[in-house]
Amino acid sequence: MAFHKELDILQQAWAPLAEGKFEIFSNPILTQIAQKHGKSVAQVVLRWLNQRDVVIIPKSVKVERMIENREIFDFTLDNEDLAQIATLNRDEIIFNHRDPNMVKWLAEYRG
Ligand SMILES: NC(=O)c1ccc[n+]([C@@H]2O[C@H](COP(=O)([O-])OP(=O)(O)OC[C@H]3O[C@@H](n4cnc5c(N)ncnc54)[C@H](OP(=O)(O)O)[C@@H]3O)[C@@H](O)[C@H]2O)c1
């Protein structure tokens, strides 16, 4: 991210809400931060990305969630929140394009 900033390149989240995986919406750290700000976990996650200049295009099939997901500009995560969220890093790639098994799965995928 620091390297991209140096080159004036904006990063875009591949899956800003982790595709709903990893029980993200019931994560205890995110839940506690959401309660502190009177926001939802999704809003905290999206604000965290936005505050760090990551472009976000969250996906939802529900209109109320689409509205919820854009209401992230009326609060600010503080340094303590940011540090707590940083501890959730998993150093995992959801979809590794260099993994032959993934490439095979994608090539054979028929929706
Ligand atoms: N991840 C990829 O492989 C990939 C690849 C190419 C393009 N994209 C694009 O990237 C964008 C992100 O999509 P994504 O599929 O990666 O997933 P995502 O945005 O990280 O997460 C979507 C999941 O979160 C749920 N969700 C959304 N808002 C919520 C809220 N406020 N509260 C609770 N749950 C919520 C959605 O469920 P509901 O729909 O039921 O609300 C869905 O299960 C999309 O525009 C997509 O087209 C993604």
Please explain how this structure is put together.
With 111 residues, this protein is mainly α. The chain has helices spanning 2-6, 28-37, 41-51, 63-70, 79-86, 100-108, and strands spanning 11-12, 54-55. The model has no long low-confidence stretch (mean pLDDT 94). It binds NADP nicotinamide-adenine-dinucleotide phosphate.
Short description:
This protein is mainly alpha-helical and 111 residues long. The chain is built from six helices and two strands.
Counted by DSSP, the helix tally is 6
Strand order of the largest sheet: 1-2
Task: Provide the gyration radius in Å.
Answer: 16 Å
Low-confidence stretches: none
Bound molecules: NADP nicotinamide-adenine-dinucleotide phosphate
Give the % helix.
40-55%
Instruction: Name the average pLDDT.
Output: 94
Q: Main β-sheet: number of strands, strand sense, barrel status?
A: 2 strands, parallel
Descriptive labels:
single chain, 111 residues, mainly alpha, 2 strands, globular, binds NADP nicotinamide-adenine-dinucleotide phosphate
How does the SSE layout of this entry go?
Blueprint: H1 2-6, E1 11-12, H2 28-37, H3 41-51, E2 54-55, H4 63-70, H5 79-86, H6 100-108
Helix pairs in contact: 2-3
Residues 14-20, 25, 40, 42, 57-62, 65, 68-69, 95 line the site of NADP nicotinamide-adenine-dinucleotide phosphate.
